[in-house]
Design brief:
alpha/beta, five-stranded mixed beta sheet, 7 helices, 12% strand
């Protein structure tokens, strides 16, 4: 097992968000458009900004939105170094209790896994109406590979098998573009120790959120550009 460097996972993620993952006009325009898809940059920036206080005490970790898709595309192999999100970022915590892992299916639809390392339990959250089949099968397949490779980090309920469920009670989007908005909301709820997906998002609420978050991304882009001057 790799040792945790002096830079914690969140410190690394914030540094990469500031200096490597550059915000661009496409991210901003897509966020601000009523029918735009939310990009990984949008999810990353907004969740990190919205959960600064929560992350100081939470034993749950938000995993970068590109991590699982990238790991899958590279063959789902065990990495040489243990991912830092398995190590607590808070000195008073000896273990990470849970992970909140966004998963982009088909390079267009955002879903979310709530992975309880403490309870050896995984919940799949999808804001689209369940029709079974390809989406859910693909999600189940990749997260079971994740469990197989990283099983040693599921520290609770030793000797028990993994319990996996698809959440049938979460609110559903009524369009084809709001999945990213729901993922952001669900991630924030998870880090705030709330049950995710139990609050709907009216159209006027979506528009306010989009406009607010587009401004934040615009500010982020300007800040990054000033660093390069």
């Amino acid at each position: 097992m790799a040792k945790l460097s002096c830079e914690t996972y969140y410190e690394e993620l914030e540094r990469l968000t500031d200096f490597t993952y550059m915000t661009n006009d496409a991210d901003i325009n897509s966020m601000g458009s009523e029918d735009g898809l939310v990009t990984d940059s949008g999810i990353r920036v907004i969740v990190l900004e919205e959960t600064k206080e929560l992350r100081r005490t939470s034993s749950k970790v938000f995993v970068d939105p590109t991590w699982l898709h990238t790991w899958e595309s590279e063959g789902c192999h065990k990495p040489v170094d243990t991912p830092k999100f398995f190590f607590p970022s808070i000195p008073s915590h000896s273990k990470v209790n849970a992970l909140a892992i966004p998963y982009n299916i088909g390079n267009g639809h955002w879903t979310l896994f709530y992975v309880s390392l403490k309870h050896r339990h995984i919940t799949f959250i999808d804001s689209l109406s369940y029709a079974g089949g390809t989406v859910e099968d693909k999600a189940r397949n990749v997260i079971f590979k994740f469990y197989k490779v990283f099983k040693e980090h599921f520290w609770g309920r030793p000797g028990h098998e993994l319990h996996y469920v698809a959440d049938r009670d979460c609110f559903r989007q009524d369009d084809g573009v709001s999945c990213g908005l729901y993922i952001i909301q669900n991630l924030i709820e998870i880090l705030n120790n709330e049950v995710p997906g139990r609050i709907g998002m009216p159209d006027d609420h979506k528009l306010v959120f989009r406009n607010l978050w587009a401004e934040r991304l615009r500010w982020k882009k300007k800040w990054q550009e000033n660093l390069l001057l």
